[in-house]
Design brief:
Layout (H helix, E strand, L loop, with lengths): L1 H20 L19 E8 L2 E5 L2 H9 L5 H10 L3 E3 L10 E8 L2 E5 L2 H8 L3 H9 L6 E3 L2
Antiparallel strand pairs: 1-2, 3-6, 4-5
Helix pairs in contact: 3-5
């Protein structure tokens, strides 16, 4: 009896954790341009990191195509907020996300493995947070299927 109750509680916690880490998908028109920070035009986009990034205008699209690395962190953030990337672990350690450590980073809900990682992020400016969390996504994010 104790084993099955414990198994049920653990299962419920894991299920809720997965729900919390899932970002609410926004439409391209609701996303922020990674170049200008303005709202996006759903008709202006470029392929990036296995997905699509939207821009406010053709000028921003051209700037992105000229130097996509410069805009990679904001582009990854946009891909999380539009549901193209999902969080699979802490952006720093890759460990499982503790659902009590959620933060809004540039419009995307992100969780961390511990309060140490969360605290490090909270101390940074909003611009630094985007760079810290989305600059290198290898440990924390993967394409949504």
């Amino acid at each position: 009896m104790k084993f099955s109750l414990l198994t049920g509680v653990v299962g419920a916690i894991l299920f809720c954790s997965a729900l919390i880490v899932s970002a609410a998908v926004t439409e391209p028109k609701d996303a922020k341009c990674p170049v200008s920070g303005k709202g996006c035009d759903p008709d202006v986009s470029a392929a990036f990191a296995g997905g699509k990034v939207w821009f406010c205008c053709g000028k921003c699209e051209a700037a992105f195509k000229a130097d996509s690395a410069k805009f990679a962190a904001k582009s990854h953030q946009q891909m999380v907020s539009t549901g193209q990337l999902k969080q699979i672990g802490c952006p720093y350690s890759g460990k499982a996300v503790d659902p009590t450590t959620m933060l809004d980073i540039g419009g995307a809900s992100v969780g961390f493995c511990c309060n140490g990682c969360k605290g490090k992020t909270e101390k940074a400016s909003p611009e630094e947070q985007v760079q810290m969390v989305f600059g290198n996504i290898a440990k924390g994010f993967a394409p949504a299927k």
